[in-house]
Amino acid sequence: MTREEKIEALEEIALEVRAFKGLEIARHATNAVPGEGDPDAEIMFIGEAPGFNEDKQGRPFVGQAGKLLEKSLQESLGMNRDDVYITNIVKYRPPDNRDPFPDEIEVCRDWLDRQIRVISPKIIATLGRFSMGKFIEGLTISRVHGQPRFVDFAGSRYIVYPMYHPAAALRAGSVLEQFRQDFNKLKALFTSASSPATAPDQSPSGPSQGSLF
Ligand code: URA
Predict the structure, then answer these.
(1) Which residue numbers delimit the Uracil-DNA glycosylase-like domain (predicted)?
(2) Which atom of ligand 1 is nearest to the CA of 86?
(3) Ligand 1 mean position, distance from CA 213 (Å)
């Protein structure tokens, strides 16, 4: 897909997300939050669901958690938020920031799957357990954070990199330290993902969920 085709496809998804009223949280949203960033991004961050600030602005990760994400991106990778793509599992704010319900995740799944296919990133960095659970089942985030793995998804192979949610990092100093370390490892992963030895399309066909390093 050309960059222009990607922009068009992402805009079409965003229009659908904004027009949809089939969920209670969609009907109550001030703004839907489809996602934003570089359509050619090599790293895609997937969070959980919009919070208060995101709902107000219609943009992902613009509150305190977003500030930490932006700061970490800049410090560890020398990147701005415009250099990556940022979205969420659920595109509307759940009331009182409760966990998303399974039916809400299910309804939003097709939009996220299409965003992934259009952007086709090298690395999908999952933020928090709901996002991780889309790709990696039956494991806890405390066990697997910072450990990249190949995941075959919708006919393509991606490097999935599970990370703590930045909001969790803001709540506990020990998690913040892990979050920072994982961001530094993301830099190394990003560099090596571009080399032939670890590029997903060059790897031997193996199990659909293989550990990368
Ligand atoms: N937390 C999320 O998971 N996503 C956002 O967009 C903001 C906060």
Answers:
(1) 34-184
(2) 6
(3) 29
Q: For ligand 1, is residue 65 a contact (CB within 6 Å)?
A: yes
- Residue 99 tokens read as 């966990």
Query: Would you report the helix, strand and coil content of the chain in percent, each value rounded to 5?
Result: 50, 15, 35
Q: Is the CB of 126 under 6 A from ligand 1?
A: no
Q: List the CATH code of the domain at 3-192.
A: 3.40.470.10
- pLDDT per residue as tens, the chain (213 positions): 999 999 999 999 999 999 999 999 999 999 999 999 999 999 999 999 999 999 999 999 999 999 999 999 999 999 999 999 999 999 999 999 899 999 999 999 999 999 999 999 999 999 999 999 999 999 999 999 999 999 998 899 999 999 999 999 999 999 999 999 999 999 999 998 877 655 554 443 333 455 555
Phi-psi region of 35 (alpha: psi -120 to 50; beta: other; left: phi over 0): left
Ligand 1 geometric centre to CA of 204 (Å)? 35
Report the separation in Å between the CA atom of 55 and the middle of ligand 1, taken as the mean of its atom positions.
10
